[in-house]
Structures are given as C-alpha cells and as structure tokens.
Design goal:
By secondary structure, this protein is of the alpha/beta class. 54% of the residues lie in helices and 8% in strands. This is BTB domain-containing protein.
Length: 309
C-alpha cells in the first residue's frame, strides 16, 4: 500500500471505486464509469466474490494498462475541456493514448472524437489542408500511427501514414519497429518504388524532346523552352541524391511550388506542363492505397463515413 501513489487530479473522496494501474491508484465514480463504458458496466455488474479485494472500504479493480493511459482515459471522461472535439487542439500523447483506451473500453463518443482528430491529420483529398499542429505532432510519432490504425480498425489513414513512414524513417528503423511483419514488408517495398519509378513519373512533365520541331506546335520559343525544361529536370533530379543521413525526396515533394518561377518557358508550354503535372499528382495519389495493398480511396472514405456517423 505504501508503494502506491494516488492520482492527485483523479482522486475523489466521495466516490466509491478504486482503480489501480501500475503503481498509481484512482478513486472515481463507479456509476459514472459504468454509464460511459459498457466494458466497465459489465465488469462492475458482476457480483463481487466473497474474497473480492477492497481498498479504503471501496471495491478495487486492477487494470493491465499503463498509469499514463488510464490517466488520459479518465481525464477525457471526466473533464470536458481535457480532450475537446476537433478542431480544438489536443496533444499527440492525449490523442494516441486516449484513442487506444477509448477503443478498448468501448467509449464510443470519445473514440469517434479521437478518430476525427486522427483523420484530419491524414486527409484523403490531395489538396485538402492538414492542421499543421496536429500533422506535425503525429508525424513525430509516425511509427505509432500505422500500429494504432490497425489496432483501432481505421484503415483510411494508412495510405498517408505509410507514405510518411517511408518518407521519414530509415529502412533499419522500419524493420526494427513494432509494426507487423506484413506492414514492414509493405513499407520497405514501397520505399523503393517511391524513390525510383514514382519520382521519375512525377517529373515526366519536364522532359523535352531532343528535336525542337517536335515540341508543342503552339510553342513560340521551342529551343528556349527545351533548354529551360531540361535545366529544371536536372535541378529536380539532383534532389534525389542523398546520403544515409538525409531523408529521401518523394513524388509529392520533388517539385516545389517556387520551381514554376524558375521555369522560363512560353505560356503555351507552361500551361501544358502544369496540366501534365497535376495529372501526374492525381494519378500518383489515386494509386497510393494500392501501393500498400489497401482498398481504393472511395472505399476507404465509405469506411470512414460509416465509422464516424
């Protein structure tokens, strides 16, 4: 008993249930917890055996979760401003820990709230903006996101989560992560495609034919346009060079918005190149789920809509 620590913000003297997680104990309302969680409702509805543990004269429950996970879980249940609905900010620790325990103990309202936050950081639309504070925080914990997605059955975030795994994690880190062997294989295999074929296809709009007369018939300066396109292709290709200490440049990042300003081509060529580039981006985005053996975007969107309705 002396080794246990009371959770200062989660110890209510007028409540009648003691919960222990690791070396931390919580005193909360039995009825409130049963009302919020069907798992706890079933657990607490069972008649206690004659040898049931008691603490401070209250029923006692030991949970196999970490003290931090239980703290986040209970605070999200009890304090209305601890974990607010999107787009209110939260922290990745609260989000990840909360989502796991909310799923485990079937608190559907909070689980859906967590899924909305996570989904917002992994948009399905190519041009849909991400909330910067959330996406940056989640990407710092990128190795956990695919695991969480599998655990919570939220496959619609996996194409983007896996893409960021490939982009930000060295292959050795991917292989040593706690992801499943299947997911590790998918990610490592995709890394090769993303660094190779996919980047080349994204830059195809910059290729110019060797013979100026074979260029767009509307081009007003074939030689100048061909030279500029070739020069920018070389610049973009240089970005693919990296050491083991630098991150790869992937299809969605290989061409930067400011690069258009350095592309000295005629208006006709510029318009056709922008069209070709947008088509390449869309084609890549459409193919992204299949790269990780996931259903197409429209099916993933239906799964998301069903889960969040």
């Amino acid at each position: 008993m002396d080794e246990l620590t009371r959770a200062s913000d989660l110890w209510f003297e007028d409540c009648g249930l003691i919960i222990q997680a690791e070396k931390t104990i919580f005193r909360v309302s039995r009825d409130f917890l049963a009302l919020q969680s069907p798992v706890f409702r079933d657990m607490l509805s069972l008649p206690p055996p004659k040898t049931a543990d008691m603490m401070f004269g209250c029923p006692f429950v030991f949970l196999p979760d970490s003290a931090q996970d239980v703290t986040v879980f209970l605070k999200a249940l009890i304090f209305h401003d601890f974990f607010e609905p999107y787009p209110a900010p939260t922290t990745v620790d609260v989000l990840i820990r909360g989502a796991a325990t909310q799923h485990k103990y079937e608190v559907q309202s909070l689980r859906k709230r967590a899924l909305v936050h996570i989904s917002a950081a992994h948009p399905h639309l190519l041009k849909q903006p991400q909330p910067a504070w959330l996406s940056h925080a989640i990407h710092r914990n990128k190795a956990l996101i695919p695991i969480l997605a599998r655990q919570l059955s939220i496959p619609w975030i996996l194409p983007i989560a896996f893409y960021h795994d490939c982009k930000h994690m060295a292959e050795q880190c991917i292989l040593s992560s706690s992801q499943s062997l299947r997911d590790k294989t998918l990610v490592v295999t995709a890394c090769r495609t993303l660094e190779g074929t996919a980047v080349s296809e994204m830059l195809d709009f910059l290729w110019a034919d060797d013979e100026p007369e074979d260029e767009d018939e509307d081009c007003v300066s074939p030689i100048r346009c061909m030279v500029s396109r070739t020069r920018m292709r070389r610049i973009a290709e240089k970005r693919r060079e990296r050491s083991t200490a630098t991150a790869p440049v992937f299809p969605l990042e290989i061409w930067r918005p400011g690069d258009w300003d350095d592309l000295f081509v005629c208006g006709s060529c510029l318009a056709s190149m922008k069209d070709a580039y947008e088509r390449a981006r869309k084609a890549f985005w459409d193919d992204l789920p299949d790269m990780f053996e996931l259903p197409p975007w429209d099916e993933l969107e239906k799964l998301q809509a069903e889960a969040l309705k």
